[in-house]
Amino acid sequence: MFTKEEPVQLLQEKAPQTMSGAEMTLRALLAEGVDTVFGYPGGAIIPIYDALFDFKEELNHVLVRHEQGGIHAAQGYARASGKVGVVFATSGPGATNLVTGLADALIDSTPLVCITGQVFAHLLGTDAFQETDIINITTPVTKWNYQVTEASQLPEALAKAFYIARSGRPGPVLIDITKNAQQQKFGFSEYTPCTHIRSYRPAPIVRPEYVTRAAALINQAKRPFVLWGQGVILGAAEQEFCAFIEKSGIPAAWTILGAGALPTDHPLNVGMLGMHGNYGPNMLTNECDVLIAIGMRFDDRVTGRLDKYAKQAQVVHLDIDPTEIDKNVTTTVPVWGDCKETLPLLTELIETKSHPEWRQRFEQFQTEEVAAVIQDELFPTSDELTMGEVIQQLNELTQGDAIVVTDVGQHQMIACRYARFNHSRSNITSGGLGTMGFALPAAIGAKFGRPDRPVVAIIGDGGIQMTIQELGTIMQTGVDVKIIILNNQFLGMVRQWQELFNDRRYSFVNIASPDYVTVASGYSISGKRVSERAELKSSLQEMLQHSGSFLLEVMVTKENNIFPMVPQGCSVSEIRLR
Amino acid sequence: MSEQPIDRQEYNITAYTENQIGLLNRIAIIFSRRKINIESLNTSPSEIDGIHRFNIVIHETEDVVRKIAKQIEKQVEVLKVYFNTNQEVIWQEMALYKVPTDIIAEKASVERLLREYGARAVVIRRDYTVFETTGHREETDNLIKVLQPYGLIEFVRSARIAIIKHSDGFNRKLREFERTEPGSEVIENEFLNDRDKVFTM
């Protein structure tokens, strides 16, 4: 049996042998430590699937119901486990169905290697059956892509693919393999992982003088404020980050992709940034004197109106990707590099402080937000259920130990705002691209990536209907995913905007739902619908304790709005509580 | 259309890259995604085997061109990117002009033309003559105007090529890329070095 600890060793022991490109591809995956592949077969990738027939023991192939489901599952797998997600798809429509997932993975920096079949090399450009120019289609949505037309090119192409996908700022890579290259036999002796590409610098060299300048700024700051993003998680720098925060005593707020890097109940975790983030972090962005951004990219949903964003502050920006520095917010001191490396250098140079008065400002805003928004959302007195109380009850039952996978929309903002996270890599959501339909397949992938952890998918009644076919994947694999549908019978976020900014002209936001419990039972998945507060907790408990997957549909109040909100085109300090 | 910011000017982007299928597209879409027109594009092998050099001219603000340059350099197969104003480079474009030999020989003072515009005759045939000249845009444009009355048959102009005035050690830097691990000077990023002026401390 192949061991992950010394993957290359095992292959090196084998004598040089003749094998097909398809078999070599699978051996490369094993050498890279891949244990799970999400895929869907088709004409142009049949040779790889034929080779897979002999690798059933070593490689777990998950047959999805749609290639988009496959790539979202691979994203969920990668985000939960920290490993590279791998996808197989055929040429033509199989490959084009990956595009949304590639775009999502690129903007959310998720390491993926997608392998697509392609028509025979001699048919390229002839409009052959299921031929599509997937390399050019995916160029804007991949970190790197490459077409292989000869089996002998495969070892190097695959080695580069894994190296590029997981190094530096991670991202999706697509390798397109023509059918002849899969079939072709060639002499293959050993797989050599890629460790260097001369034109590619995964991370810039750390310049200590900039760390020194950053530390000087931080040490003289009276009202310093830390913003952190997914870079802390991608760099596996959670401990380094925590050490920095605790020594500096600086209040820290997170982007939704950064959630969980510092536990929710850590005293210096002051909450969520952005359009539906917490009151204090948004208001005080425009009052802090030094803003320290760590592994985040100042997305417009975080900054609101840029020319009124933190203009009073000196900005320190730590990022591994040089293009992010000065992209949206002009930096006073840039600290280029992997934060795993730069944070300890910075922690070393900063003074131990606690900033009690400044932190009290955040607490005051929090008190105000609780009174205006949070109390009613989490502990409502109205008859109808709220999304927030579902998350609140879930927190009490899971104690913050579950992986929470969310889709896109109102339920996503509620889940990100209120879900409790004790561990990193626990909040899996489509942040940058905002892909509805992400959650169900991503939750499946997350469970394969972390079978030891409970996985709860929280999905709206819109998003579930975009990839509901993946219930078939759950049925066939028996993977244990808990699905909560928060059904408000609306495309709620668009409805909220139409209510607030379009005079309640509810244009095509009424969405009908099937009977989800019946649909689930058609896939042999247990389910339940709840609309009464009295039954909520027991239903959630039943779901969590159920052996195997479970679908819980919660009927929530129809026209709730998510607040606080920074309206589009407004400054973060113009955030509305109602 | 919105008003153009006044600080726009021509910038010459120089990129050293691997010779890789598809890279031209990867670089081109960095511009087209931002709706920036490429005024001139030249790509050819550099002095180092396997390394290509792109010369790209755009009309933009410094802020935009700086971000674009970083985005190009971020691409896996790009080794190094520089950007310069026209004042910082020596640049040339080449042009070819095809004119009927009988008219040009009869009516124009060929010798004067060649002298005045630094042109030379590449081909002289009974039916047509091809002149060639190199220079800045205005210079190659002027010769069109002069030749138009003499029955200009065909005209073509090359993309711009440019050499950076302060290009100390380019060749040396490129050679370092050929080694397995590039030296620190190559890894060093110019953009970071240029930032010193923004520090207020």
UniProtKB/TrEMBL annotation, chain A:
Top enzyme class, one word, equals: transferase
Q: How is the cofactor bound?
A: Binds 1 thiamine pyrophosphate per subunit. Binds 1 Mg(2+) ion per subunit.
Which Pfam families does the UniProt entry name for this protein? TPP_enzyme_C, TPP_enzyme_M, TPP_enzyme_N
Q: Which GO terms describe its biological process?
A: isoleucine biosynthetic process; L-valine biosynthetic process
Record keywords, A-Z: Amino-acid biosynthesis, Branched-chain amino acid biosynthesis, Magnesium, Metal-binding, Thiamine pyrophosphate, Transferase
The Thiamine pyrophosphate enzyme central domain extends over: 211-344
Domain annotation Thiamine pyrophosphate enzyme TPP-binding: ranges = 407-554
Question: Keyword Transmembrane: yes or no?
Answer: no
Please, which domain of life does this record's source organism belong to? Bacteria
- Name its pathway: Amino-acid biosynthesis; L-isoleucine biosynthesis; L-isoleucine from 2-oxobutanoate: step 1/4; Amino-acid biosynthesis; L-valine biosynthesis; L-valine from pyruvate: step 1/4
Q: Quick check: keyword Amino-acid biosynthesis in the entry?
A: yes
* Reactions that this protein is recorded to catalyse: 2 pyruvate + H(+) = (2S)-2-acetolactate + CO2
Q: Name one GO molecular function term.
A: acetolactate synthase activity
Q: Where is the Thiamine pyrophosphate enzyme N-terminal TPP-binding domain?
A: 19-135
State the needed cofactors, names only.
thiamine diphosphate; Mg(2+)
> CDD domains per the record?
TPP_AHAS, TPP_PYR_POX_like
Q: Which PROSITE patterns match?
A: TPP_ENZYMES
InterPro entries given in the database record: Acetolactate_synth_lsu, AHAS_TPP, DHS-like_NAD/FAD-binding_dom, THDP-binding, Thiamin_PyroP_enz_cen_dom, Thiamin_PyroP_enz_TPP-bd_dom, TPP-bd_CS, TPP_enz
The protein's Enzyme Commission number: 2.2.1.6
Give an example GO cellular component term for this record: acetolactate synthase complex
Q: What is this protein called?
A: Acetolactate synthase
Species of provenance: Hymenobacter qilianensis
Primary gene name: ilvB
TrEMBL record, chain B:
InterPro entries recorded for this chain?
Answer: Acetalactate_synth_ssu (IPR004789), Acetolactate_synth/TF_NikR_C (IPR027271), Acetolactate_synth_ssu_C (IPR019455), ACT-like_dom_sf (IPR045865), ACT_dom (IPR002912), AHAS_ACT (IPR039557), AHAS_small-like_ACT (IPR054480)
Reaction catalysed by this enzyme: 2 pyruvate + H(+) = (2S)-2-acetolactate + CO2
SUPFAM superfamilies xref list = ACT-like (SSF55021)
- What GO terms in the biological process aspect are recorded for it? isoleucine biosynthetic process; L-valine biosynthetic process
What PROSITE patterns has UniProt attached to this entry? ACT (PS51671)
Q: Which keywords does UniProt give here?
A: Amino-acid biosynthesis, Branched-chain amino acid biosynthesis, Transferase
What top-level branch of life does the organism fall under?
Bacteria
Domain ACT stretches: 12-86
Identify one Gene Ontology CC term for this UniProt entry. cytosol
Q: Identify the metabolic or biological route this protein is part of.
A: Amino-acid biosynthesis; L-valine biosynthesis; L-valine from pyruvate: step 1/4; Amino-acid biosynthesis; L-isoleucine biosynthesis; L-isoleucine from 2-oxobutanoate: step 1/4
Annotated CDD domains = ACT_AHAS
Checking Pfam families in the record gives: ACT_AHAS_ss, ALS_ss_C
Please state the Enzyme Commission number of this protein. 2.2.1.6
- Molecular functions per Gene Ontology: acetolactate synthase activity; acetolactate synthase regulator activity
Its family remark reads: Belongs to the acetolactate synthase small subunit family.
Subunit note: Dimer of large and small chains.
List the NCBIfam families: acolac_sm
Which named protein is this?
acetolactate synthase
